[in-house]
Amino acid sequence: MPELDDLIASLRERVKNMSASESGNAAKVYGDEKIIFTADHLRSFRPPQLREMRRIAQSRESIRWSESRLFYEQARFMADFEDDKPYYGGFELYFPTYQRLNEDQLRGYFTWRTGVRNGAFDDSSTTYCFIYIYEILHNVGVDSPEQGAEILNRIWTMTKKPSVRSWITEWACDYSAYYGTDPELFEALRPQLALERDLSKVSRCDDVPDEELYGVLCRFVPGYAERSALVREHPQDHLELSCRILRKTAERYRKNSGREYADSLYMIRNSVSRNMFRNAVFFDYKAPRMYSRDVTEYTRYSCRGTNWSWSGLGRQKDSNDLRMIFHEADNLLREHYGYNNLLKDSDWSKEKKKLARKALEEMLEERRQNERRRVVFDMSLLDGIRKSSEMMKEKLIVPGSEEEFRESDAAPKIEVPDACTESDAAENEETGNNASGLTTEEKNLLASILAGDMAGISKNGMKVSLLCDSINEKLYELIGDTAIEFEGDMPAVVEDYIDDVKGALA
């Protein structure tokens, strides 16, 4: 605009003339004046922080620095910088750094970062997103590694770019090892952690309950239980048998190879060289150091100086053991229950099929044993038992009152029926004449026991035990306890009841 240019020129000329006229005066007065910039001047304006950041790349020390070291130093310098000049142009860079951006793109990045820090995440630029992630990997602009993990989680959750999500997933594990944070903080690591926990349970299957172990198998073989008709009709049988087969298979693998069963399902890599934060602009500013960190049960990092090594879970093997376990359990149960439609014979090894069949036989045998030992209480029979006991009680009641029975002086008479033999009558007469009711033979044995007459005891032969049982029964009414006990093969009167027994013989 020529009018604006003329105005600016006239104002400058006026200021120049005023300065010249006042140059001879002893007293000078200074005051604030507005400086008017044209559009060209405004476009060429660069914040002083950016100029200083560019000077870092031109310093003498930076000649020996790698590109990642230069990025780290510049990132630390610009950690708190904010800008308000967005960039609306489109561009994409691989391994982006501050030095690879022009002035407008650089100011656009810091404007974008200011918005993200204030909660306004913009997913439009992959380049800006990766530069910001590189800063977080260096722990720049955050107060703690935990806060850095929280920012990486937010980016992973909010971005729709697959490349950003996949790299955060890989770098999150390195971040946890480098800074010692809990891997559970990362949403991106949850699937990996869940897989490793399930794999550990498969290897420790002997100590895992059936329901929990079967859930793990269903996650490794998704959809099988829902598709099988046998599993829908006999879910508990399939659950128990599958777990039994798995335990036998794992035991066989440990016995033959000396390794855990997880090794047959996944590649387990041991101490391989690790490029930390692979394909990221990252400077290992903590090196050198001696460091080891167990991130998960299978993942371990070690640092020796500047060299990192890693051991952990690799890719899944082609082995389909877990699917075959479900298949064999399904088919064996179909045979057991008499299904007409058996499954197609699998290509599992004969030895493993034999283990599966043995697992079924053991399961069925245990169930048979448990069925024999099971005690069943039929509560419906209790009412009938109660009624029967009441009827029996009524039959046992003696007519007349208890007092009348006790006051009766009449002694019971022992009558020998006509049909009795002379020996029976003699025995009845013999037992009726003493209060204990002991027979002559029992009295003789009891006297021998009291006297310690071994010969008198032995002459009864095999009848000693039977006679002693009979004596105990008859003396129970008198003593209220067992009178004779056996010490080895010989009977003896209990010491406390010797006087009572002698009284019974009198």
Q: Keywords, please?
A:
506 residues, alpha+beta, Arc Repressor Mutant, subunit A, 4-stranded antiparallel beta sheet, two-stranded antiparallel sheet, 22 helices, 55% helix
What do these coordinates show?
The chain is of the alpha+beta class. It has 3 domains: 48-186, no CATH class; 192-364, no CATH class; 435-505, Orthogonal Bundle (Arc Repressor Mutant, subunit A). It has 22 helices and 6 strands. The chain has helices at 2-21, 39-43, 48-57, 67-77, 103-117, 126-137, 145-158, 162-179, 190-203, 210-220, 224-227, 229-233, 235-257, 321-337, 350-373, 382-396, 402-407, 422-432, 440-451, 454-458, 464-479, 498-505; strands at residues 266-274, 289-294, 300-305, 307-316, 484-487, 490-493. A 4-stranded antiparallel beta sheet has the order 1-4-3-2, with no helix packed on it. A two-stranded antiparallel sheet has the order 5-6. A hairpin with a 5-residue loop joins β2 (289-294) and β3 (300-305). α3 (48-57) packs antiparallel against α4 (67-77), α6 runs parallel beside α8 and α13 (235-257) packs across α14. The radius of gyration is 50 Å and the shape is elongated. Residues 410-433 have low confidence and may be disordered.
Structural class, please?
alpha+beta
Biggest sheet, in brief?
4 strands, antiparallel
The geometry reads as elongated
Instruction: Give the helix tally.
Output: 22
State the domain count. Answer: 3
* Element order: H for helix, E for strand: HHHHHHHHHHHHHEEEEHHHHHHHHEEH
Rg for CA atoms: 50 Å
Main-sheet strand order equals 1-4-3-2
Strand content is 5-15%
How far apart the termini lie comes to 151 Å
> How many strand segments?
6
Query: Which range best describes the helical content: under 10%, 10-25%, 25-40%, 40-55%, 55-70% or over 70%?
Result: 40-55%
